[in-house]
Fold this sequence. Notes:
Helices cover 22% and strands 37% of the residues. It is built from 3 helices and 8 strands, in the order E-H-E-E-E-H-E-H-E-E-E. The protein has one domain (12-141): 2,3-Dihydroxybiphenyl 1,2-Dioxygenase, domain 1, CATH 3.10.180.10. Strands 2-3-4-1-5-8-7-6 form an 8-stranded mixed beta sheet. The longest helix is centred in the first third of the chain and has 12 residues, at 25-36. By secondary structure, the protein is α+β, with helices and mostly antiparallel strands. The chain is globular, with a radius of gyration of 15 Å.
Amino acid sequence: MSGNHSPSSGSLTDIDHVGIAVRDLDAAVEWYEKMFGATVAHRERIESDGVDEALIKVADSYIQLLQPYTDTSPLAKYMERNGEGIHHVGYRVDNCDEVLESVKAQGARVVDEHPRTGSRGTTVAFLHPKTSFGTLIELVEE
């Protein structure tokens, strides 16, 4: 999006979004609207993950509010253990497949063995938090 990538950023070109787990998506959207005058830039049901999302644009990035719509979704299971709050960080990359293969070759544990379609038609893959200092990382290729 910004197109101005720092040479020191390596394969991570930007922060795409911060994913926040919420129990009530409409209430969370309303709170961001009331507190900050924020508006939803995109809303989508992500069937493959069992979540509904609302994206709030912040500069060249997003706040991704996520609510599970099924008790069997990975997010619902996460929320049973951890409650609401920051769930993951999404980093933009130029080539999701290349970065995923590179981190796997360096020993990172991954959630997705191969990139898949994410929201907004992006290509995404997740790295497991056990090998990334407790942070679930999403690679996002636009």
